[in-house]
TrEMBL record:
SUPFAM superfamilies: Cupredoxins, Cytochrome c oxidase subunit II-like, transmembrane region. It is a multi-pass membrane protein. This is cytochrome-c oxidase. It comes from Glycomyces rutgersensis. Keywords: Copper, Electron transport, Membrane, Metal-binding, Translocase, Transmembrane, Transmembrane helix, Transport.
């Protein structure tokens, strides 16, 4: 009979350890992540802009700091459980510690210090993300509508370029065509966004942030800039629930060299279509990161 409580305690301890291990593995297993992906904490591996690199570093740094604080709290908690566990021979409660001024000051000041550090770096990154240059290197007007996108290529002052047909140089998507926006791989690339009907949201996941596009006057127009640091092809989506076909409202962003961008834009001005101009600079003529969906309400199925 003497050994029975001990065996029961050991059994409970083993079960607790097992459940803890399962709980730690569940997020990774349920998310379907590989071990490498787990260290990115859900963020994309590719970050083609300076701003996305800064936001990634801020997120990882704050997560590591939170885990460090968590480990200290968990360690102290389990240490207290083990060190002050009541034994059968105990007849008195452990000595109580009250009104410990140094401890109270430490536990009050330390969170403020941590919050101040996090606030400082957050403001720095936020200022860099929202900064606007006086003279952008390129400019593209983005117009969202139910349920697709129109991109209008513009000059450095964000005035639409006029093609050989006398009309603005635009790229417009429809239910059977994914629109492609081409931008140069350089700093101070500006976007000017608006919406025709309801609120939409311009979102390229690899850029790590989005911008809401709001219908209305010029006061509602959204302007932002990014500094690209690598070429590539990236999927774009609408991140604001905007109606029946919100989920199908995709586009593709192509980041090309400044020379290829100039060649592409000149070709569009001369009258080439986007697929023709993309082939001219050695790019795939149609979207590769996403595809059109069947929007026939009679079938209700994606193609």
């Amino acid at each position: 009979m003497v050994g029975k409580p001990s065996r029961e305690r050991r059994g409970r301890a083993r079960r607790a350890i097992g459940l803890t291990g399962i709980a730690a593995l569940l997020p990774i297993v349920l998310a379907g992540c590989s071990l490498d992906d787990a260290f990115y904490l859900g963020w994309p591996r590719t970050r083609p802009t300076t701003q996305s690199e800064q936001m990634f570093d801020l997120w990882i740094g704050s997560t590591v700091a939170a885990l460090a604080v968590g480990l200290i709290v968990w360690g102290l908690t389990f240490w207290c459980i083990a060190a002050y566990k009541k034994k059968d021979s105990d007849t008195e409660l452990p000595r109580q510690t009250k009104y410990n001024l140094p401890a109270e000051l430490t536990f009050t000041a330390l969170p403020f210090v941590l919050i101040g550090i996090l606030f400082y770096y957050t403001v720095i990154v936020q200022d860099n993300v929202t900064e606007m240059s006086d003279e952008p290197q390129s400019c593209t007007n983005v117009t969202a509508f139910k349920w697709n996108w129109q991109f209008t290529y513009s000059d450095d002052e964000c005035e639409p370029l006029v093609g050989a047909n006398g009309q603005p140089v635009t790229e417009t998507g429809d239910s059977g065509y994914i629109p492609i926006i081409v931008v140069p791989n350089e700093e101070d690339v500006r976007f000017v966004g608006t919406a025709e009907d309801v609120i939409h949201s311009f979102w390229v996941p690899d850029l790590l942030f989005k911008r809401d596009l709001i219908p209305g006057s010029d006061a509602q127009t959204t302007r932002w800039e990014v500094d690209f640091n690598s070429e590539g092809t990236f999927v774009g989506r609408c991140a604001e629930l905007c109606g029946a076909y919100h989920a199908f409202m995709n586009f593709e962003m192509r980041v090309v060299s400044p020379e290829d961008y100039e060649t592409f834009v000149n070709a569009r001005v001369e009258g080439m279509t986007t697929p023709e101009a993309l082939e001219l600079i050695g790019q795939e003529p149609y979207a590769t990161t996403t595809h059109p969906f069947d929007t026939d309400q009679a079938t209700g199925e994606a193609s």
